[in-house]
Amino acid sequence: MSLLRKKSISFMLQEKQMAGSSPGGMKKELGVFDLAMLGIGCIVGTGIFVLTGVAAAQHAGPGLILSFILAGIVCAFCALCYAEFASMVPVSGSAYTYSYATFGELIAWILGWDLILEYGFAASMVASGWSGYFQGLISGMGITLPTALSSAFDPANGTYVDVPAILIVLVLTFIVSRGSKESSRLNSIMVIVKIAVILLFIVVGAFYVKLGNWTPFMPFGFSGVVTGAATAFLSYIGFDAVATAAEEVKNPQKDLPRGIMWSLVVCSLLYVLVTGVLTGIVPYAELNVKNPVAFALQYINQNWVAGFISLGAIVGITTVLFVLLFGQTRLLYAIGRDGLLPKPLARLNPKTGVPANSTWATGVIVAIFAGLIPLRKLADLVSIGTLFAFISVSLGIIILRKSRPDLERSFKVPLVPWIPVLAVLTCGYLLISLPAVTWIAFLIWMVIGLIVYFAYGYKHSELSK
């Protein structure tokens, strides 16, 4: 039963209070606006600038508008569950921490190891994507990197290391290490620029929408809309990162739920509007391109706006990478504090209140993966990690409502258990639709995680003492 030992919520809150009041503790500097910007920074990025075109051309056509609405509703079920947990357990670690209080240590470790995979792979792949956009931008200025330094290790194509990917990861890691307020302020500026560019596309593109391009509205049938929703769902995986910042929020019981929900509302609206304008400008069959938003503006001869869009895409992807790095550092900090990973990962910089060791460990590892290892074929590993986290959080709400109805909740999920059950079922459906190779890779990662736990974590766990 020691494998299922639970960390009580009251102890977590006491531990958090002691850490926050001690010299050099995490600084409570974030508000609702900062949290919403973190969520939007992670959710609106590669999805809106890349995914929309491919999903419309291959899966849903103009019906992708319905796909994003459907995916937003499903994500709202999960976001509501996150919001209740965040109001109840405002402690760093998000789904890992929630599972520690609900299911016990072994399940929490499995989920934490799962989230390490999710954040690490996602950050590495986004850094690789950023490198591609950046090289495309500078090539327009007549600057071309040597082939050997332009992409991850692939001697057959003459590439050995992706230098831009490594550099952007290290630069953003340095920014994250400067403190939560400073880094979130820069993130907010970049998010505002990104939203302004997206609004520019919506306003300019709206004048060129042809209603005929929306006919037929569902060329692949409703099943295509559902497939599009499954693809679109993975564009919304940003509010887990918001929850990781819990210990740096001024009023976490109220601000965390608001930050999570506001980010979801704003992002859903932007996705629906962009998809509507995009499919209204260009016939959906022609949107199977890597840069659909810029392509649409070139299609209507608005090249001056397309240049802004390309710049906005780079800024947008930068914010996604920033938030993923931020979330990974806070996750490692929480696991290290519990003793399941080496304690130095939980050491805070006395000046900035940031887990410096976790920050640089994350930055260096992500930079190595992004710079040297081709990861695009393993993209679904990010999806499987996210879906497992969503399922565990949703189940946790049902369990704690029955086992701990006395806990103070400043935010409550309505219609329990129905909304959490819907979240579990929809995420479960997406899980079983993932390819077999993804499951095999995921199970290998889990076996490695269990070896690490029994060789180190089980013996060094703070609860074992």
Automatic annotation (TrEMBL):
The lineage of its organism: Bacteria, Bacillati, Bacillota, Bacilli, Bacillales. This is Amino acid permease. It is found in: Membrane. It is a multi-pass membrane protein. Signal peptide: none annotated. Pfam families: AA_permease_2. It comes from Paenibacillus rhizolycopersici. The chain crosses the membrane at residues 35-57, 64-85, 97-121, 133-153, 159-177, 189-208, 220-239, 260-284, 304-333, 354-375, 381-401, 413-432, 438-456. Keywords: Membrane, Transmembrane, Transmembrane helix, Transport. Its main location: membrane.
